[in-house]
């Protein structure tokens, strides 16, 4: 069966393919840039929280419009912080409310996952688990992404 691929918001190529995790959550992974897409509700399933973004009202206050397009509905993606006090930046579709995380953000997640004990950071640990099980090759990603000097 030919799997339908979606256009990656960052690569503009049909490089996004559906991936079923053992937990029964479907995410979309980009072959090229290693970013991930989660449809509405999938991030919440991951984190076992009610909402995809723990404090959406706060997050929306500082949300910025981007030129990126949603791979699922073509809506615009807005950039915002996952947690108001955190460093993790996500993009969220203004129409279907799916969420994009790019490779650099995943890399930040790895850093955060090891030191954040907030239950709201479970998504970060979930991603870390995915990496440990070989779904996401963070090592490959790190080689292609320059580390931010301010964080060293
Ligand atoms: Zn991509
Ligand atoms: Zn959308």
Question: Can you give keywords for this protein?
Answer:
alpha+beta, 7-stranded antiparallel β-sheet, globular
Number of helices: 5
Count up the domains. 1
The average pLDDT score comes to 78
Rg over C-alpha atoms, rounded to the nearest angstrom: 14 Å
In terms of quaternary structure, the protein is single chain
Task: Profile the largest sheet.
Answer: 7 strands, antiparallel
Number of strands: 7
> What are the segments in which pLDDT stays under 50 over at least 5 consecutive residues?
none
The helix content is 25-40%
Provide the succession of SSEs: EEEHHEEEEHHH
**Could you tell me how far the N terminus lies from the C terminus, measured between alpha carbons in angstroms?**
46 Å
- Order the strands across the largest sheet as they lie in space: 1-2-3-7-6-5-4
* Proportion of beta-strand residues: 15-25%
Sheet/helix structural class: alpha+beta
What is the 3D form?
globular
Named once each, the bound ligands are: zinc ion
What does this structure look like?
This protein is α+β, with helices and mostly antiparallel strands. The model has no long low-confidence stretch (mean pLDDT 78). Helix 3 crosses helix 4 (122-132). It contains five helices and seven strands; from the N terminus they run E-E-E-H-H-E-E-E-E-H-H-H. The chain has one domain. The chain binds zinc ion (2 copies). The site of one zinc ion (ZN) has 8 residues, from loops.
In terms of topology, how is this protein built?
Blueprint: E1 16-20, E2 26-30, E3 36-38, H1 42-47, H2 56-61, E4 64-69, E5 76-81, E6 89-93, E7 99-101, H3 103-115, H4 122-132, H5 138-144
The structure holds zinc ion (2 copies).
